[in-house]
Each structure stands twice: as structure tokens, then as C-alpha cells.
């Protein structure tokens, strides 16, 4: 796809040369589409069913897609005007406020034993939704997970943080058509977030530690979030710059329902999120007969602007594939009655359809999709 970038640059130069000096530059859309196979499966052989990677894709320049291990980060710090923090749901992290705690160094195991039984993912109780980020991705308005960071340090809670689960170990055997997403528990931390000028201070420690560590995260307007790893004690690079990714392939904490009743959190594989923080929208087109024909015939004039979903990053989610749960090669497959329309952060439109979610051996973690600009 590097030729796309070259064509893009050449197009910009050509447009600039035709404009008077006082006119705005016209942004030229990408010239062609492509078939993309995001590297969700990682580099180790036969580990696709563990889905170790997150992949961030810019449809205008897929050659610049970014890949990271799911365990590479713990918290994301919002760089906009508000002071908000997200957790790494791709490894099933969760957090709960430690009632009555005012000094992080004084918190000990006996203070949080009862809370540990609640701050969990996948317990099939609706109450555990309060301990995770809002599944729809609307972090600015969420009342779950980590609260908005306050100006007054004493108003910011101390949290018990379930650090989630590590990746399955090398050589983990996963049945064709199935997934094994979690390894060993990553333990617990006590954490407090403080607002500072143009950024955040994070205090963190093991549960029984009587001293804590600190890190300062300064806001960077080029990115929606800055990311932090407790293991590294450092800032880490995860997302591309805020307008340079449209789709994220990841594991995901979602809300699950049974007969219309919430069962709380559920840990999904093969999930696709959209970059709603930068205004990316998407919607599904359900075909009536022939997918090839209807996809190929879909043009810019066919777009229905009223159908775009901009306020929920699950617009694609798991809707592109299905599983039957019987752990066979044929139990997981891509829907053949639908495709998706994307509007990116720069206002360009794309049509996109998924072709595969497995390799020829039936191993999951091998998604494949094609797209075209409209």
C-alpha cells in the first residue's frame, strides 16, 4: 500500500500547484482499495487462537497500521480538554473504588478482600459493569470504571485495580475454530489518579506496599490518548495519531444479554472497534440476495447518512462473524449477508466486507477484509 501514500502526496502537490496562494489546500482521498489481513495472530506458530495482538488500521494508509501485544499497556490518559482515563479491556482489566481510603500507602489486603470478589470480568452478574469502561466507548460520559479526575487531589478515589489476565503461554493448544484468550492472572494494584497542569499524576503500588511509585503523564494533542504500562513504569506507544486510525482489531469487554436481561460483562474475541473519539462512523448494509453483486454495485450515491453510528465504537463489533460454540473448525465463520460503510475522521467514505476469520487450518485470529473508497 506504499504506492497509495505516494499517489496521495503527488495528488496533493498537483492540487496545490493549481491553487492561488490564499486558498485552502484540498485533501485528496485515497485512490484505491485493498485486501488486508491484520496480524491479530502474532508471530508464534499456531497461536492465532490466543489472539495476542491489537491492530490499529488507517484505511487511507494501511501500510502504516500499528500492532501491539495486548499486554503492552494498562491505562490510557485522554489528551482532550477533559481529564478521563480508560483501562485495557483487551486483557480484562477492571477497577473499583476502595471505600473510605484516603492514603494509598495505608491500604492493605484486609481492606480489599471483599472488593476483590466483585471487581471481576465475566461473572454473569449485571453489577460488575460498574467496574469496567462503558462498552459503547463513550468514556467522557461514563459513570463506570475510573471516574473523571478531579482538580482537588483529595476528591480522587483510590482504586483497587484487577490487572486482568496475561497472554496464554507459548505452545498453548487451541482447538480449531475456538479461542483461548487468557493466561495467568496479572494480580492486583492500588492506584490513584491526580489532575495536574496539562496532564496527570498516577500513584500506584502493590496491595500491601507501604510506599508507592509515581509517574507524570503530560497531554499530547496529536493523540486521543497517552498510554501507560505499570510493568514498564513508563509511557508506551499504542494508538497512531488521533486521525490516523479507523478500525481496531482486539479482544473486548462487552455487555452480554440473556432473554433481554443483562448478564454483565463478557470477554469477546474477534472484535472490531471504530475510532469514535476522532469522529469515525460506520453502519451495516444487509444484502437481500447476492453479496458480490450488491457490494460491487454500492456507490457513493447509495450511502445513507442517517445510518452512521458515531456514538458507539461497537458499530462493527462482533457483527461481522458468528460462532456456534461447538469448538469445531466450521463453528466460526464470516457472515455472507452483509458489508459495512465507514466514514473516517477526514470525511472520506469506504465500503468494507470481511472475507475470513480463520486460516486454512481452521485457526482463528486470521481476519481478512477488503475495502474500497467511495
TrEMBL record:
Keywords: Signal. InterPro entries: HmuY (IPR025921). Residues 1-20 form the signal peptide. CDD domains: HmuY. The keyword Signal applies. The keyword Glycoprotein does not apply. This is HmuY protein. It comes from Chryseobacterium formosense.
